[in-house]
Amino acid sequence: MEMNIALLPGDGIGPEVIEQAVKVVKAVGKKFGHTITFKEAIVGAAAIDATGNPYPDETHEVCLQADAVLFGAIGDPKYDNDPKAKVRPEQGLLAMRKKLGLFSNVRPTFTFPSLIHKSPLKKERIEGTDLVFLRELTGGIYFGEPRGRNEQGTKAFDTNVYTKEEITRLARMGFEFAQKRRKLLTCVDKANVLATSRLWRETVQELEPEYPDVKVEYEFVDAVAMRLVQWPKAYDVLITENLFGDILTDEASVISGSMGLMPSASLGTDVKLFEPIHGSYPQAAGKDIANPLATVLSAAMMFEYAFDLKDEAQAITDVVNRSLAEGVVTEDIAEESKPSKTSEVGDWLAEQIL
Amino acid sequence: MEMNIALLPGDGIGPEVIEQAVKVVKAVGKKFGHTITFKEAIVGAAAIDATGNPYPDETHEVCLQADAVLFGAIGDPKYDNDPKAKVRPEQGLLAMRKKLGLFSNVRPTFTFPSLIHKSPLKKERIEGTDLVFLRELTGGIYFGEPRGRNEQGTKAFDTNVYTKEEITRLARMGFEFAQKRRKLLTCVDKANVLATSRLWRETVQELEPEYPDVKVEYEFVDAVAMRLVQWPKAYDVLITENLFGDILTDEASVISGSMGLMPSASLGTDVKLFEPIHGSYPQAAGKDIANPLATVLSAAMMFEYAFDLKDEAQAITDVVNRSLAEGVVTEDIAEESKPSKTSEVGDWLAEQIL
Ligand SMILES: CC(C)[C@H](C(=O)O)[C@@H](O)C(=O)O
Ligand SMILES: CC(C)[C@H](C(=O)O)[C@@H](O)C(=O)O
């Protein structure tokens, strides 16, 4: 198969972890006989520094022409504590999601047998956890207008807004995921307070009869924030709005014991994007110590979701499991073994695949 | 001292748990020589059923004339899955908070030595946790206008809005709490996306020089959702907007191992209100099995925050600790011991105080 992959390393540790994913993807291409070409583009703080725009048009073109996008991370602390900064790296991420129509962020949460003891949660609570969040990614309070300040600057406002259409397409994807899994769908909202949440609940209720094999539960976001830690095994597929998804998926990532392992896929109308859920981790940038596994596993999701190549995806998951079992891992998760460098983990994984 | 206390039992298990708190408060009054009078009023689903209004004017009057309000719980499932219900019990709660000016919800999170093994989190992660959230309670997306639907009903919107004034009064309270504690204040926001959050961050930054002994940290809400489970001991005082506070304080309640134990105080301009953080738990209502300890501990907070009576508060905390140590507890936390009924726990606590 021919595959054109856009690489958007972004900021902080982004470039380092993307480099390792590329090694692994190349190895998979060689082994399974695919022709893979890569094209790199800038985004985030890196793009602001170079062009003033965190998601330049040229980068958008590169994404549009690709079959899939591999994305690293975005964010730079120099912008975080300056509430008045005019352009922020995150705007690039949001513009990219919106312009590429990536309305669904798929974030699985699962545990690794060899890492389960690293979780702050007790083993019996989390062993066997297998849930997936579908977070709406191009709507809600992230994009709603009006947003900003009054003239004197003493009052600020944001607008949360959802249309039935936006909810329906995300919800349908949720029902379809559930049909292929354990057939339980949880709609997470705050319908006891928010008008948007009541539209979510109503819309999902209306779709229920079309998917009679799926059991639907409705839960308030505060209750889910609690139950997710108490008993994550209770969940299968969860659908939710952009902001709740942001908070809950980060919370859920703790279950696995390491953020450095959790991949994600952003799906929508055409192009598909794959990225680790961790951030740009600027303190570690350039030190060759960042954990590349989340990005490597995002590449596995790419083979499965963008190219429908399950064997290739499985080959990557297998070597990642082996690296965990044999202790070829970076310092954040190394224990008995001597920690490996970011680049060493990438090299090892690529070799193991070939 | 003379104390007028308004009792708002509300829905579900509310009446049962309030009854036990009243027994304990009466015992404290007797022991310490206070004259305590109670006046009961309706709120929530109970009030809708009786008057059509979830926070009737008469109830508001009772609260205004009281020195403190003891509140049970609100909510009835018959309203939750009806997105088109015109009046909902929660509106009573929100109206009450707003009309009484209760802008700060104080929610401590701590662990009980005898219960620590019940937490889904590992002991070494949580032992010694002692943090307190100050959740803004009368602003944000809970109250912002406009909110509702477009004419066709296909689009819904909510408005998150904060003024510098609202943020300042909550933040000042946060700084003052921190000064009396470990001197660390964490401002939780989503300043990389929301205009309201940027005003929060800016306002808190401007206040910093007035409290040079307090160290201030700024963290994104998604990061806090994660770190709260990973390492809760890192936090001391956290301040945040209404919605983030709703989600994070429920999440934090898991640390202690039981929601049935966590009290809260709502402070503002005049009247002060005290309530357990758990909900109305309708499945248990009327069965004499609900855990009254969170409400009893809320009464302890009442003596401390509303009347500045620390010994009285301590007397209650002491007997609660004794009930835990001796296993005089309801079925949700009973282990070796035979579970006690709700009413038996209340009787035992009151006796122990006298
Ligand atoms: C960087 C930030 C804007 C972003 C978000 O809130 O969506 C991040 O937290 C994420 O989850 O991808
Ligand atoms: C019942 C609901 C409206 C309420 C809230 O969201 O504030 C509750 O969850 C709480 O935290 O007191």
Automatic annotation (TrEMBL), chains A, B:
<keyword id="KW-0464">Manganese</keyword>
<feature type="binding site">
    <location>
        <position position="250"/>
    </location>
    <ligand>
        <name>Mg(2+)</name>
    </ligand>
</feature>
<dbReference type="InterPro" id="IPR004429">
    <property type="entry name" value="Isopropylmalate_DH"/>
</dbReference>
<keyword id="KW-0560">Oxidoreductase</keyword>
<dbReference type="GO" id="GO:0003862">
    <property type="term" value="F:3-isopropylmalate dehydrogenase activity"/>
</dbReference>
<comment type="pathway">
    <text>Amino-acid biosynthesis; L-leucine biosynthesis; L-leucine from 3-methyl-2-oxobutanoate: step 3/4.</text>
</comment>
<comment type="subunit">
    <text>Homodimer.</text>
</comment>
<dbReference type="Pfam" id="PF00180">
    <property type="entry name" value="Iso_dh"/>
</dbReference>
<comment type="similarity">
    <text>Belongs to the isocitrate and isopropylmalate dehydrogenases family. LeuB type 1 subfamily.</text>
</comment>
<keyword id="KW-0520">NAD</keyword>
<keyword id="KW-0432">Leucine biosynthesis</keyword>
<protein>
    <recommendedName>
        <fullName>3-isopropylmalate dehydrogenase</fullName>
        <ecNumber>1.1.1.85</ecNumber>
    </recommendedName>
</protein>
<dbReference type="InterPro" id="IPR019818">
    <property type="entry name" value="IsoCit/isopropylmalate_DH_CS"/>
</dbReference>
<keyword id="KW-0479">Metal-binding</keyword>
<feature type="binding site">
    <location>
        <position position="97"/>
    </location>
    <ligand>
        <name>substrate</name>
    </ligand>
</feature>
<feature type="site" description="Important for catalysis">
    <location>
        <position position="142"/>
    </location>
</feature>
<dbReference type="GO" id="GO:0051287">
    <property type="term" value="F:NAD binding"/>
</dbReference>
<feature type="binding site">
    <location>
        <position position="222"/>
    </location>
    <ligand>
        <name>Mg(2+)</name>
    </ligand>
</feature>
<feature type="binding site">
    <location>
        <position position="246"/>
    </location>
    <ligand>
        <name>Mg(2+)</name>
    </ligand>
</feature>
<keyword id="KW-0460">Magnesium</keyword>
<feature type="site" description="Important for catalysis">
    <location>
        <position position="190"/>
    </location>
</feature>
<feature type="binding site">
    <location>
        <position position="107"/>
    </location>
    <ligand>
        <name>substrate</name>
    </ligand>
</feature>
<keyword id="KW-0100">Branched-chain amino acid biosynthesis</keyword>
<feature type="binding site">
    <location>
        <position position="135"/>
    </location>
    <ligand>
        <name>substrate</name>
    </ligand>
</feature>
<dbReference type="GO" id="GO:0005829">
    <property type="term" value="C:cytosol"/>
</dbReference>
<feature type="domain" description="Isopropylmalate dehydrogenase-like">
    <location>
        <begin position="4"/>
        <end position="349"/>
    </location>
</feature>
<dbReference type="GO" id="GO:0000287">
    <property type="term" value="F:magnesium ion binding"/>
</dbReference>
<dbReference type="InterPro" id="IPR024084">
    <property type="entry name" value="IsoPropMal-DH-like_dom"/>
</dbReference>
<feature type="binding site">
    <location>
        <position position="222"/>
    </location>
    <ligand>
        <name>substrate</name>
    </ligand>
</feature>
<keyword id="KW-0963">Cytoplasm</keyword>
<dbReference type="GO" id="GO:0009098">
    <property type="term" value="P:L-leucine biosynthetic process"/>
</dbReference>
<comment type="function">
    <text>Catalyzes the oxidation of 3-carboxy-2-hydroxy-4-methylpentanoate (3-isopropylmalate) to 3-carboxy-4-methyl-2-oxopentanoate. The product decarboxylates to 4-methyl-2 oxopentanoate.</text>
</comment>
<keyword id="KW-0028">Amino-acid biosynthesis</keyword>
